[in-house]
């Protein structure tokens, strides 16, 4: 619970702090380093919008990322090295929890993060605009697919500096 609070505070800081406190990447967004559609992910384009090395999380980097999910996109089971908070901005995607636990807040219910539903391993759910997820991405492996039109995800991620952003659980079959 404390980790979710820290992530929420850091996301709010990124959103509200303004350009004096946030080091932006460039005038035009640039692809996420190390996330150039790796094997196991087809149809994603990730762009870092802002990043900061927060004093409250020494040795870590908090990034705000825009993920474009093309129609037909698929991402095999994988983990990330840190904590993620994401919200679907537009479209719809199917998010699968392979193992671990993910907290989900549905926009349609006007729920608060404190009233989040826990998604457990072996479940899939369709995310709609405004739905949000928070999870320790190193302890929850997950999948993503898009069977509809284009979708946009806004994602805040807190990783140790220099860590590989994505680890796939198995070599995908072509």
Keywords:
174 residues, mainly beta, Jelly Rolls, twelve-stranded antiparallel sheet, 1 helix
Q: Quaternary arrangement of the chains shown?
A: single chain
- The count of DSSP E runs of length 2 or more, i.e. the number of strands, is 12
**What is the CA-CA span between the terminal residues?**
39 Å
> What would you call the shape?
globular
CATH architecture term: Sandwich
Order of H and E elements: HEEEEEEEEEEEE
Largest sheet: 12 strands, antiparallel
The percentage of residues in β strands lies in over 45%
Structural class: mainly beta
Question: What can you see in these coordinates?
Answer:
The chain has one helix at 2-16, and strands at residues 30-31, 41-52, 60-79, 83-90, 93-99, 101-105, 117-120, 123-127, 132-136, 141-145, 151-160, 167-168. The chain has 174 residues and is mainly β. It has one domain: Jelly Rolls, CATH 2.60.120.10. Strands 1, 2, 3, 4, 5, 6, 7, 8, 9, 10, 11 and 12 form a twelve-stranded antiparallel beta sheet that branches. β2 (41-52) and β3 form a beta hairpin. It is globular, with a radius of gyration of 15 Å.
Give me the secondary-structure topology:
Elements lengths: L1 H15 L13 E2 L9 E12 L7 E20 L3 E8 L2 E7 L1 E5 L11 E4 L2 E5 L4 E5 L4 E5 L5 E10 L6 E2 L6
Antiparallel strand pairs: 1-2, 2-3, 3-10, 3-11, 3-12, 4-9, 4-11, 5-8, 5-10, 6-7, 6-9
Task: Give a quick rundown of the structure.
This protein is mainly beta and 174 residues long. The protein has one helix spanning 2-16, and strands spanning 30-31, 41-52, 60-79, 83-90, 93-99, 101-105, 117-120, 123-127, 132-136, 141-145, 151-160, 167-168. Strand 2 and strand 3 form a beta hairpin.
């Amino acid at each position: 619970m404390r980790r979710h609070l820290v992530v929420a505070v850091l996301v709010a800081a990124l959103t509200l702090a303004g350009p004096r406190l946030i080091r932006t990447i460039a005038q035009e967004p640039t692809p996420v380093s190390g996330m150039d559609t790796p094997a196991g992910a087809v149809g994603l384009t990730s762009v870092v919008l802002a990043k900061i090395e927060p004093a409250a999380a020494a040795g870590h980097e908090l990034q705000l990322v825009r993920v474009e999910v093309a129609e037909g996109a698929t991402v095999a089971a994988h983990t990330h090295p840190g904590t993620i908070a994401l919200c679907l901005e537009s479209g719809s995607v199917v998010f699968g929890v392979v193992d671990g636990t993910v907290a989900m807040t549905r926009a349609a219910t006007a729920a608060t993060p404190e009233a989040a539903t826990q998604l457990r391993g072996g479940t899939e759910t369709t995310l709609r605009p405004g739905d949000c997820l928070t999870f320790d991405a190193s302890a929850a492996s997950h999948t993503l697919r898009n069977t509809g039109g284009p979708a946009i995800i806004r994602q805040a991620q807190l990783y140790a500096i220099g860590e590989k952003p994505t680890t796939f659980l198995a070599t995908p079959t072509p």
